[in-house]
Hints:
The chain is of the alpha/beta class and about 350 residues long. Helices cover about 30% and strands about 25% of the residues. The protein has twelve helices and 16 strands.
Amino acid sequence: xxxxxxxxxxxxxxxxxxxxxxxxxxxxxxxxxxxxxxxxxxxxxxxxxxxxxxxxxxxxxxxxxxxxxxxxxxxxxxxxxxxxxxxxxxxxxxxxxxxxxxxxxxxxxxxxxxxxxxxxxxxxxxxxxxxxxxxxxxxxxxxxxxxxxxxxxxxxxxxxxxxxxxxxxxxxxxxxxxxxxxxxxxxxxxxxxxxxxxxxxxxxxxxxxxxxxxxxxxxxxxxxxxxxxxxxxxxxxxxxxxxxxxxxxxxxxxxxxxxxxxxxxxxxxxxxxxxxxxxxxxxxxxxxxxxxxxxxxxxxxxxxxxxxxxxxxxxxxxxxxxxxxxxxxxxxxxxxxxxxxxxxxxxxxxxxxxxx
Length: 356
């Protein structure tokens, strides 16, 4: 058993590549109800970087180990009187901190301890790349479509940023469930790819009018369900274009990234639309869902997402592996628009030797 490990630690809030340092830390000890996980792979999500900048919905205590979402690894040890899992078992650890809730160990380190109620066994045929991205994006897509918006087979679902990771998963899930999608993209060159993925209709805001195209597609009955991760003017336009009684769930704010002007951090809704047409606009945040859902229900829903991925109903593109030592390169890739493969921190088997 090793006594020390490598960890990527931020000493203070700031630009990730300015504040992160590779450190040696003691391997933590699992207490009752906890497992010690030897991390194999963990992604770099945009939200991880927003947390480090102090621009997310929660702020950890600094210094902090980076990575606040998910990882895959094997159980190295179990705390005293801890049952239900076995040493050596391969698991996904959900590190998403519930709001409100206790802090969760960062995933950008070789070992971490986690509450066993936040561990989900995963089959060996699922790659580390897919397994370590199971707990955020596939789960978000599943929750948006089936729990938040309750979209029924045959109904239309409108979504913005359809080319995003969650957007692509929503298209796959909707096709599986018999739901028709209208997919909003910014660039004309994205249209063919979205249709090839299985998107029923695509609206390109670069050269098309969103409300007009929605009327052409859905006819007089209109569209009543929308998932938006852009916010700003686009989120407002989506709500405006829905049929009376329509519902928009906003789960991201891509239009506000890197914005500092308070006026840009809004969704300018039409009062007439909200009042006279009874439109609903509300938010969804996975952290808050974990904070308000019982651990049993959370794991049950996560296991649904695991099955969809394992059965290849939902496909997660292969990530690009990086060792912790190359963190500046990995984070720079994560920040590059249309960067393709998601960067993952990986810990190879050959790194397990004691380095004291």
